[in-house]
Amino acid sequence: MIAKLYGRIDETGVDHLVIDVNGVGYLVQASARTLSALGKTDDFATVFTEMQVSENDMRLIGFATREERDWFRLLTGVQGVGGKVGLAILSAIEPADLALAIGSGDAAMVARANGVGPKLASRIVNELKDKVGALAGIGGGAKLMATGAAAGNHAQDAMSALANLGFKPGEAGNAVAQALEELGPDATLDALVRLALKRASR
After folding, report:
1. What local confidence, expressed as pLDDT, does residue 25 receive?
2. Residue that terminates a domain, selected from 14, 39, 63
3. pLDDT(11) > 90
4. What CATH number is attached to the domain comprising 33?
5. How many domains is the chain partitioned into structurally?
6. Would 147 be classed as within a structural domain?
7. 47 and 98 together in one domain
8. Is 82 found in the same domain as 58?
9. SS3 sequence, the chain?
10. Which of 46, 50, 74, 173 has the greatest number of beta carbons closer than 10 A?
11. DSSP conformation letters of 48-101
12. Is there a domain that residue 83 lies in?
């Protein structure tokens, strides 16, 4: 099993790169987000990999971070989500935003990815909701889930308020979670939004 590669980027394509490791070129499939993060031709990069083997094919899927690879493994564990769809989701949605979408049951956000219809998006949200809550560290999933559970509608309303002010869902969710830790579950919506704004603006 190849878990990680370090070498020079020999070439890049729309959905792949070739990384030269001591003279051996590895063809690695990757999301648009990963390709952008890794760099350009002749840059040196570390690629975290997942190997997929089927009857007719064997391929390496690459990621810029372990977090993205962990999300890919979670997504492809859902029936109907293959490697191509998993990469499409990760190309369209950042891990932190994906954690927020799944934690809050927002299937519409997941359905923004190419190849993901409403039924599949709902299945992804339903099957991964508990897993995201249990996996601390993956896109802030556990913290976001805890925020929503502890403060109920106030947390969701505070996240919406920050989102309306231009903050990304992941940024808003993490800021509200930090504010909630300081203020406690009985915090008013006004206090939660004010402190979350300070934390998000750091």
Report:
1. 96
2. 63
3. yes
4. 2.40.50.140
5. 3
6. no
7. no
8. no
9. CCCEEEEEEEEECCCEEEEEECCEEEEEEECHHHHHHHCCCCCEEEEEEEEEECCCCEEEEEECCHHHHHHHHHHHCCCCCCHHHHHHHHHHCCHHHHHHHHHCCCHHHHCCCCCCCHHHHHHHHHHHHHHHHHCCCCCCHHHHHHHHHHHCHHHHHHHHHHHHCCCCHHHHHHHHHHHHHHHCCCCCHHHHHHHHHHHHCC
10. 173
11. EEEEEE-SS-EEEEEESSHHHHHHHHHHHTSTT--HHHHHHHHHHS-HHHHHHH
12. yes
pLDDT single digits (tens) 86-139: 999 999 988 877 887 887 788 998 999 999 999 999 999 999 887 765 444 444
Tokens describing residue 25: 């070129």
In the listed set 47, 63, 79, which residue is the last one of a domain according to the structure? Answer: 63
Helix, strand, or coil (residue 24): strand
Query: 77 with 124, same domain?
Result: yes
